[in-house]
Structures are given as structure tokens and as C-alpha cells.
Write a structure and sequence with these properties.
Blueprint: E1 30-31, E2 40-41, H1 43-65, E3 76-78, E4 84-93, E5 96-101, H2 105-110, H3 116-122, E6 127-132, E7 139-147, E8 157-163, E9 169-174, E10 177-181, E11 184-191, E12 200-208, E13 214-223, E14 240-244, E15 247-259, E16 274-284, E17 287-289, E18 292-300, E19 306-307, E20 320-322, E21 325-329, E22 339-347, E23 356-358, E24 362-363, E25 370-372, E26 376-379, E27 382-390, H4 400-403, E28 415-422, E29 428-437, E30 444-449, E31 455-461, E32 468-477, E33 479-485, E34 488-489
Length: 504
């Protein structure tokens, strides 16, 4: 395969802001006494000088006391484009709220004990924050600060890989929580899984080039917060078949390390994003069937990693599923003998009449408007309540403002339907069987969001001549199965081994 061209450096050169290299200072008041040419400090200046000295001494002590060993936390790297990258924080937790303060580590120690007249003049007022939610699992949170003084600059960092001492590598994150300030971009990276069997963990940050390819921008090493002696699971051979009632499911394919599909797999062999792929086959009473699909896949290992990809049921671009095929970002690493796959399966058709709800026609709201709804349906102990239908780019009130907000493409064409399910779904699933307009034409279901929770959103893209919607929902009981397997790993030279390394 032809290797991508070398990354071209930007035409500008970044430089660290001068205030990061200078300590606050105050000019001394100088006067001359008659016949004496030596300067004499005024009383006010002496006080200020002593105060600055005390501040610097206290800050230095605090700085040294707080430099707990943690690998490269607090370190700053110079990147190829001339910008700098600081590894600001690393937290191992199940939920976290980050509050940002500008400046380097030493200045952040000085700031709280600095008099206001000094702080207001010499310290940058760059504050903000973001939060990391949780599904009940523990995550590794990494916060970085990328700085550059060039005009109109923006950080090109977009991916994070983690690796261990054995050479196991995992594509942990594509994209991050982001805050931007002049000359400074803060990223919050949520790592939902990482190798835990070595004493240290490496963090490799990748920058995306203008042609979609990738460049290894910088690396840091930290102590592994989850390092311990863990058991080893024994995988079951596959293909393997498990049954839930009259449904038999066969794990037919389990592969790790292939390139991401489409534009997601751009780049050379060492930097291209990698994926994990699974294929299941279904049978009902001994006959092959096609009206089932994967609803949710939860992956876990013997070291305590446990997470699930957010699967797209419509577009096959990033993390997605259609019928029995699943692909998700991140190649599982070979350092684990086996991975546990907890899989939820649902039907895509073949519903009985009592499992379906035909909603009376709903008129599409005019631009900028929202229509409140009162339609409800009770089935098998679950109640579904339609809340409101909003026109494109129109916000819902309350908590649905974010749940039912469409963040994707074609914002001016996508309507949002807010709905509630009670009690919260456990072994049931609500799905959309079909959506038609007033002429019986099919309406595109762009996404069914927040399906694991009581408050959900349906995003719809009707045709230009559509005036109303006719929705049909389906309520069913899911089937749950568990597999314990080791994936097939594609050739190490083209998958998840670090540059210059290979695995037998």
C-alpha cells in the first residue's frame, strides 16, 4: 500500500506566550538623597518586595509538595507545528467535573495567594469547565492544554491512543470535550477502556492533517492507576451458538485490528484508526431468520474494563450495527486472553398486532414552532408518552433541550420528537416500526436517541411536500446472551502494534 505523504508543517511557527516565562515584578521606587547617588527603596516598595518574596517562597514550597510522582503529569512537550502540549490532569474515576484555569503549573500555584493588584495584572482570566458523565463504569480522564501564539490558530489534536509496556495499543478516543481561548485549546479525553496489566500506561496523541491522514503528535507516560495482578479468562472457541428461548444466535466472526471503514480509516498503516468487528447469525426453531439485530453490545475483560459503544442503527460510518453485524472504533488488544460480550438482541419485524402502536396523524409544526402532544400508549407494563414535536433548529423546553436537539448534518431539515417511557426500560425495547407522511410516503428516521433511558428523542427527515406524520411504534421484550471469546487479530504490521514493534 502506498504510504501517505509526510505531514507538512504549517507556515507559521508558534511561540510560548511571554507571560508564561516571566515572574510578576514590580518596579522599585527610587529617589536620590542629597550628595548620595545610591537608590533608596520607599517604605511602600519595601513592603511590596517583601510580600512578593513571601509569595514566591510559599508558592515554591507548595509547588514542590504537590509534585507527587505520577509520570509525565504536568509535563509540557513541543509539537512539530511549534505549539506546546501540556498534560494537565489524569483522573481515574466514575464521574468528574473539570474546572480550567489558564497559565502554567507554577503560576496556578501562585495565583490563589497573590494579592489582587498583582493577580489582575499578570494572570490570564481564562476559566471554564466541562463534565464527564458515567454509565456506572470507571473511566480514565485525561486533560491536555495545547498552546500556540500564532494568529487564527486552532489545535489539530483529534485522537488518543493508549499503550502499555507489552506493546498493546488501543484507539481509546476520537474527539474530546473542548474549550477554546486565544492561543489555548483545552481537551478533555474520556478513556473508557485501557490495558491494566502493566505499571505504566502511555498516551499517544494524534493530529489530523488537512487530507484526513494522521500524525503522531506527542507521547506521555503515566503510572497505571488500575495496575494489579488480575486473573486470566479462558475463551470459548467460536463459531459458538447460544440460545434464548426459541432464538439461537451464533457468533460467526470476531475480528480486531482492521482499518475503520470509509474516511475513518484514512492514514498510513501506523496511524490509521482501527476497529473491532463482530458478526452474528440468527435462527428461529432451526430456520435462519433475518429479522433480528444487535441492540446493545457491552464489552468487558478480566481486569475490570467494561464499556459499550454507542451504536448507530442507520448510518454505517463509525460505531454501527445492522442485523447481526457490528463494527466499532478501537481494536481490542491481544494482551487479554478473552473478552466477555454481553449482547442484547431485538426484532426488526414480525411483530404481532398487540406489540404495535399506530399514532394518529401529527401535523408538522411551522418553522420556529413546537407542537405539544398528549398521545400515550400502555403495553406489557410500560407506558409511552409523546411530549412534543419541534420544527428544525427549534429547541424543546426543560431537559429535552439537549436530549431532543439535533447536532448532526442537515439541521434545517430534521424534526425532533420528544417522548417518555415509564418505568425505565430494563428488559423491554421501544422501536420505530415505520413512519409515513400523509401520502403514504416513507419518512426517513435519522436517529432514535437516548434509547437506554426514560426520556428519548426521535429525529425525522420528512420530504419537502410532507405536512403530517403517521408513526408506528413497536414494544418488545429483548433477548440477552453472553459470549466469552478471543478475537482474530489481523496482521500486526498493519494493526495495533506501535511504530517499530510487532507481536508474534
Amino acid at each position: 500500500m502506498k504510504r501517505a505523504e509526510a505531514f507538512r508543517l504549517p507556515q507559521f511557527v508558534c511561540a510560548s506566550a511571554s507571560w508564561e516565562r516571566q515572574l510578576p515584578h514590580r518596579a522599585l521606587a527610587i529617589r536620590r538623597r542629597s550628595g548620595i547617588g545610591s537608590p533608596v527603596h520607599s517604605t511602600k516598595s519595601k513592603v511590596a518586595l517583601v510580600a512578593c518574596g513571601v509569595i514566591l517562597l510559599a508558592a515554591a514550597v507548595l509547588f514542590l509538595l504537590n509534585r507527587t510522582p505520577g509520570g509525565d503529569i504536568g509535563a509540557v512537550r513541543r509539537l512539530a507545528d511549534g505549539s506546546t502540549l501540556e498534560l494537565r490532569q489524569v483522573i481515574f474515576t466514575n464521574a468528574y467535573q473539570y474546572s480550567h484555569r489558564g497559565g502554567n503549573r507554577f503560576l496556578r500555584f501562585i495565583e490563589p495567594i497573590t494579592p489582587p493588584f498583582i493577580r489582575n495584572r499578570f494572570f490570564p482570566s481564562r476559566t471554564g469547565g466541562f463534565g464527564f458523565g458515567t454509565e456506572g463504569n470507571t473511566n480514565l480522564i485525561v486533560v491536555t492544554v495545547n498552546r500556540c501564539s500564532a494568529p487564527n490558530w486552532w489545535s489539530s489534536l483529534a485522537r488518543l491512543r493508549v499503550f502499555d509496556e507489552q506493546g498493546d495499543v488501543y484507539d481509546a478516543r476520537w474527539g474530546a470535550h473542548t474549550m477554546g481561548f486565544p492561543g489555548e485549546v483545552v481537551h478533555g479525553w474520556q478513556i473508557r477502556a485501557f490495558p491494566r496489566r502493566s505499571k505504566t500506561v502511555g498516551l499517544r496523541f494524534l493530529a489530523q492533517n488537512s487530507d484526513g491522514s494522521w500524525t503522531n503528535a506527542s507521547e506521555f507516560t503515566i503510572r497505571n492507576p488500575a495496575y494489579a495482578a488480575y486473573p486470566r479468562w479462558t475463551p470459548e472457541p467460536w463459531p459458538s451458538t447460544k440460545s434464548a428461548g426459541d432464538l439461537a444466535v451464533t457468533l460467526r466472526e470476531f475480528q480486531s485490528g482492521g482499518r475503520m471503514s470509509g474516511h475513518g480509516g484514512q492514514g498510513n498503516e501506523q496511524t490509521a484508526a482501527r476497529k473491532t468487528r463482530l458478526v452474528f447469525a440468527f435462527a428461529n426453531e432451526g430456520r435462519s431468520v433475518e429479522n433480528w439485530r444487535v441492540q446493545k453490545l457491552t464489552i468487558s475483560d478480566a481486569t475490570g474494563n467494561r464499556w459499550f459503544p454507542y451504536l448507530d442503527f442507520v448510518k454505517q460510518e463509525f460505531d454501527w450495527t445492522t442485523n447481526g453485524t457490528v463494527e466499532f472504533f478501537g481494536a481490542l488488544w491481544p494482551g487479554e486472553n478473552a473478552w466477555r460480550l454481553d449482547v442484547e438482541f431485538v426484532r426488526t419485524g414480525g411483530f404481532s398486532p398487540d406489540e404495535l402502536w399506530d399514532v394518529p396523524p401529527i401535523r408538522l409544526p411551522a418553522a420556529g414552532l413546537l407542537t405539544d402532544l398528549t398521545n400515550s400508549w400502555h403495553h406489557d407494563g410500560v407506558t409511552v408518552q409523546l411530549v412534543a414535536l419541534a420544527s428544525p433548529t427549534t429547541d424543546h423546553p426543560g431537559g429535552f433541550k439537549w436530549i431532543a436537539k439535533w447536532w448532526g448534518e442537515e439541521k434545517n431539515m430534521v424534526y425532533s420528537l420528544a417522548l417518555k417511557v415509564s418505568p425505565e426500560l430494563k428488559d423491554h425495547r421501544l422501536s420505530v416500526a415505520r413512519v409515513l407522511d400523509q401520502e403514504g410516503r416513507e419518512v426517513e428516521v435519522v436517529q432514535h436517541g437516548n434509547q437506554d433511558y426514560a426520556e428519548q428523542a426521535l429525529f425525522l427527515k420528512p420530504g419537502e411536500t410532507a405536512r403530517e406524520l403517521k408513526l408506528t411504534f413497536a414494544m418488545q421484550r429483548s433477548r440477552f446472551l453472553q459470549f466469552l471469546a478471543r478475537p482474530e487479530f489481523v496482521a500486526a504490521s498493519v494493526t495495533n502494534a506501535p511504530t517499530g514493534q510487532s507481536r508474534d
